[in-house]
Amino acid sequence: MVNYQTGVKNQNTIRFGSAKIEVGETESTLIDLGIAEGISFTEEFEPIEVKPDNGPKLTLGTKNHIATVAFSMMELNLENLYLIRGGIDTKTNVAGSATPVTDEEHILSGVEFARLDHKNGDGSIVTSVTVVDASDNACVQDTDYILALDPEGYTCIARVAGSTVLTDGDTAKVDYTYTPNASIELSSGGLNTINPRVARLTNTNAAGKKFEVTVYKASNKNGIKLEFPADDAADVMKPEITLEGVVDTTRTAGDQLFKIVDEQGVLA
Predict the structure, then answer these.
(1) What is the pTM of this model?
(2) Is 178 helix (H, G, I), strand (E, B) or coil?
(3) Mind listing the pLDDT tens digit for each residue in 50-81?
């Protein structure tokens, strides 16, 4: 018979599952990088120790305090790779052909934004926008609806609270023209300053509760390595990414490197 010495104290603190990876120039502009492998967060530091001649070793503090987010990208998106690498590259969006869209429908609830289905390759707001309500009544921009860009460069539409044409829950039918990229070009060499990024890992459980790690000032530490899998291999190209975070002295001491937020382990 097994004699267990203890038992589970809080089932909610037993963690399952991987994480969503987000990177951005700021916390308000984070971009979801999609699927990946080998996602990890690691904190490291060196203790500052003094060994006197006539007494035991003393630990006085820490130095070289860093936090690392690492993963292998499975979605090799050059826009995201350019963001991660922090400005040591030149990115060029080569425009394709302008493409019209007619009667794209979006239900507008309250004043919440709805994302249009297509976007301009350069991340600008789509052009030639006209909007009618479900009964084909014409709507006026900034009177009945407003347009904005989300962090991923998609044009979004929301109703104006005081609109007498677009009512709450109404369906807007949107015509517009978008210009996708024909290609994206990433070139490198000659730019030497790597700008830090915010990196965030988020695990969300079935109840919608998050376990979230944010590194405030993380810089890319890897060059690009592209390994082309065999034609008959059940594998994909997976460049490895390492983002090393250092203390951000512009923040309050004690909150300069990373933050972990746990909604899952809180007992009801």
Answers:
(1) 0.81
(2) strand
(3) 999 999 988 888 899 999 999 999 999 999 99
